[in-house]
Amino acid sequence: MRVAESSKVLQADNGAGAEGLDEASDRDYVNSLARGLEVICAFTRATPQMSLSDVARATNMTRATARRLLLTLVREGYASQDGKVFSLRPKILRLGYSALSSMNIWDVAQPLMAQLADKLRESVFAAVLDGHDVVYVARANSDRLVNIGITIGSRAPAHAVSTGRVLLAAQGEPEFHRYLETVNLVKFTTNTVVSKVKLRELIEESRASGWAIVDQELEIGLRSISVPIRNAEGHTVAALNVCCPSSRLTPEQMRTSVLAELMSTSQAITAGLQS
Question: What is the CATH number of domain 18-92?
Answer without folding.
Answer: 1.10.10.10
